[in-house]
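Forwarding the complex inputs:
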Amino acid sequence: MPSSNKKINPDLVKERKKCSFNTLELTHLLDGGVQKTIERKSRENFFLDDEELQSKIPLEYLSHKEKYEEAVRKACLLFKKVNQLQSEGKGGMDNFREILGGQLGSAILKDGNPLTLHYVMFIPTLMGQASLEQQTKWIQKAWTCDIIGTYAQTELGHGTFIRGLETTATYDPKTEEFVLNSPSITAYKWWPGGLGHSANYAIVVAQLYTLGKNHGIHPFIVQLRDEETHMPLPGIKIGEIGCKLGMNSTNNGYLGFENVRIPRTNMLMKNTRVLPDGTYVESPSSKLTYGTMIFVRVVLVQDCATYLKKVCTIATRYSAVRHQSQIKPSEPEVQILDFLTQQYKIFPYIASCFAFQYAAALIWDTYNSVSSELETGQFDNLPELHATACVLKAVCTEECSRGVETLRLACGGHGYMAASNLPATYGLVTAMCTYEGENTVLLLQTARFLIKILQNEQNKPMLPTMKYLQDALRVQAPFQKSVNWILTALQKTAAGKLDLANKHINERVKKGMAYEDAWNMTSIELVQAADMHGRVFLVNTFIISVQKFKSQVSQELWIVLDQLLQLYAVNTILKLTGDVLKFTELQGKDVEVLQSWLEELLILIRPNAVGLVDSFDFRDEVLSSALGAYDGNVYERLFEETRKSPLNAEPVNKSFKEFLKPFMKAQL
Amino acid sequence: MPSSNKKINPDLVKERKKCSFNTLELTHLLDGGVQKTIERKSRENFFLDDEELQSKIPLEYLSHKEKYEEAVRKACLLFKKVNQLQSEGKGGMDNFREILGGQLGSAILKDGNPLTLHYVMFIPTLMGQASLEQQTKWIQKAWTCDIIGTYAQTELGHGTFIRGLETTATYDPKTEEFVLNSPSITAYKWWPGGLGHSANYAIVVAQLYTLGKNHGIHPFIVQLRDEETHMPLPGIKIGEIGCKLGMNSTNNGYLGFENVRIPRTNMLMKNTRVLPDGTYVESPSSKLTYGTMIFVRVVLVQDCATYLKKVCTIATRYSAVRHQSQIKPSEPEVQILDFLTQQYKIFPYIASCFAFQYAAALIWDTYNSVSSELETGQFDNLPELHATACVLKAVCTEECSRGVETLRLACGGHGYMAASNLPATYGLVTAMCTYEGENTVLLLQTARFLIKILQNEQNKPMLPTMKYLQDALRVQAPFQKSVNWILTALQKTAAGKLDLANKHINERVKKGMAYEDAWNMTSIELVQAADMHGRVFLVNTFIISVQKFKSQVSQELWIVLDQLLQLYAVNTILKLTGDVLKFTELQGKDVEVLQSWLEELLILIRPNAVGLVDSFDFRDEVLSSALGAYDGNVYERLFEETRKSPLNAEPVNKSFKEFLKPFMKAQL
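Prediction (whole assembly, two chains):
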């Protein structure tokens, strides 16, 4: 069996020589400065050089149960190391973000972390919704991991529509306790990560009943398991929900209640309270709890950028190393990266990585400024932030999922191998389309807001990416071969589609349909219009960012960033010409100009493709891919991976003697 | 824990009452007649009522090695039963087709069958390419499973471009043997199903060298393992390639050769021969071996129909049972099938099932008639059959993959559960985009043929679905709200796109580019044009079939089939308006007519949705889905599935004591 070769694949050496810009400059730009790069690398060394955090056998060979056990082992070690860093005063929140997010976390726990929700939901919810007194009692225990918590909201019967949750928490003033029950099978909590066998506490969202009246859903702290023995407490029905498309180490669980009693003081009471006699005291503003939901969606947009960068790195390096077929019969087999169709599959997604990152940065800033406003009682910009976070989450997760699969398929059969790490990445990415708000539902929420803006029923928009809605319908913009024209055309199209959808709603209402039914009948158009608005946002923030960089980066780098912007814009509009032809001055012959512009850009980007993905600067352990490693020794690595298969440890598997031989020897 | 309820979910009872046609009539139509339905059901009973063919623990909970062992157990039992049927004279080839294809096979071996290639490739290749003498020697042994074979063509370094294969078979006249070698790591065979640990023989495709000259690739029979001990023979390097996105029970293997000697008579010599002295005797026609490749692609189109029907059944039944959100605030939560956006996700794919089935039927007939022509030495229609099989394989596998994921996402979080059977189905379906010819490569092959037709450089086309290319550019066709107009518009668009791509190639050549480079630079447009031709084919065969049924089926059923045809056509053209606006008389305002036509059709089909998928008549064991069962008891079934998880067998997993408790008790 051939063994791995440590030298760099000559195709990659050649590619790296061709690069026209300094990849380190781009790495620094993407990290947010030299210092950030140094910190990131130091953190990566700390975690990835620790052999205990590697698995001896790749997870996919293990049974479901073994996968979980290995994940608990690693997760405990991982957070021990995080705490070590914290106690040394290094890194602060960045450590958690990296460990829980796409880059470092998914390198160590490739298929999910059973303790993530303790940090991402349990502690933040305590911080956001517990009273000061409750925080004193619980947060220290949670921070030091005396208790491990999760967040139990979704039920078997309800995800998106949380008002429909069925779990009840009924106040009993005699004992000053809440009594929790699952009145039906669909009331069982279902999905929370770590709930199956890992957490011993949970924040449970339930319908609050007191003095015979329902006050809607509220959060409660509930102990699930004995702190010493980990046995489920009486009345707690608990387990894991089983195998999934991906994330099979997250230990997603189910949870039912049969008359489980908790003290009154276990209701999280920062905003609303139940007094000992059962009196319900209202929240000053229910909008205060909105923040976490928006925050998570903002983080997902950033995660999309990270995952897509990983996958682009894998597909680009593989395509530079893989030779297949001839363009001319007389010449040798070419690098598949030289096929225009392959460039067309990969390069637009390299551009998307940048688009996502800039969009994430803008929405992150907006989130922070709106959060500050909320603390001073200013809620005016919240709906716009919410609408923007919804559409970006939907558009980026959808585009990212499609990208992962397009790029996996672009790697041919080898992309189908677990050793490529593309299948597991898809498992993580496609889940984002569903959780934290199903994409179609989110797009419809955005559409509702956009129509109000269009009709001037809402405050003036704060974001530069939203203002166009107020005048786009009146703008004249004959075709030009420019990114700015593309933006204007997309804006006109988004506004036009919204306006048309709105017209169709009104026509249906005039014919006697209820507004809600008219909305439903027009919802396909509304979803498409909101999606189009998301595209406008992405192109717009990309333009703004590249303009800003002009004075900050070298000319060599800026040229490449500008090419990527152009590619992103042209590719976006070419996929939407059906709409753009309808709502703008674009004509059939102009589409040909756009198509050849696209082709020119692919050729311009080709020599820098490997340089661009090198700039993303992923360690091989983060990529975890035989196809994507820095040295490009694809075939040697694929071969090495086969040695890890327990099936290959024996030349003859026992099933031969047990089943196959008797079958073959039988006279059939 | 609640237990399963055997009665039918009331939502499904209600839906079934609404159905406007006789579902049994449609079942018979789809099966090809009453008798075919009876035979299918009898076969399903024979296999699916056998409890030994069920797995006690769902495969996904097992380790990779256990999955393989369980698959060998089942595969041996399965083929024993097939042989039992054959010996009773029941069923003939239909048994094999069902067992090896999408419907019955994937119900029993959900993640692949390690013996499939023995029946699908090893035996057929012997039949097609072995001389009569060789057939006498080998076929009986293969039929009775004295030996188990596989087909080893693809290598680590070469898949699509088979001329590039590196394995060598060098003739040694002294011993009258071929000597097989893998001259490099990329020469290792990689991917063949069953090669890892199951097969003891293989047909190996290798570069033939004799008397110092290379004669290109040829097939050889090679023994891999000892027939008694199953130990790999000397010089045979063999094992499995590791985990994949799906098909983890197929035991895909690798294979390298180090001076492996086989008798001269092990070269398959039906068409070409090497004489004892090493003389190479040419084949009368290399086209004779073309057939198998086309045959497999034809079968894949049929498989696409089967898989998509399964997934449509699951998504439709789940959407009828699932209630979520309100359309009007005053009313109860609605069946999610009442959301127009949900109908838009599902119903067009129900229509695709029919489109695929009719396309598969036409190409199957064409395949048979061209095969008869080949036997009489007539090769004229082979290129057209080949081009058609290529584009249909590419278009149908792509649309089917997209469909599976769209429908999985339409089932929300529960679609992500392995218990939905949607993830495993995606694993099987997306693989079809890559194997048996990568889709982009196939589309380019079709494009090359279509351009010849367009330029009248080829024989006149035989297929009614191809003839349009000769005059579509000249046809005048102002917009009409009719399926026939849509077909004409799509034809004009396909011809227009091809013509434009051809113009761009010629322009590039005029500017001095080599034709091959011009082809590459135009390949994005060529791929899109070929894809468009595939859409034309699907709409066209759907129209022809529904016209034909008009006199054969009841009026009630015909109305529904016609609605599905309309939906398929309208949905196809709406996704392509960017091109259609350019190449036809379609105008912006007409798109609005098409959009509202689409919406009307969704509403018309809504009451029959459950009836339509009921007509596909899948047994629950074939669907293997908690979301899709006939009784619609989705939540009870999801819950039952959790009981099968070995992790749930103990209330506390050992990792608590080993890792979690020490971590929690440590003073962090």
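Chain A has two domains: 12-36+288-462+483-630, 147-283.
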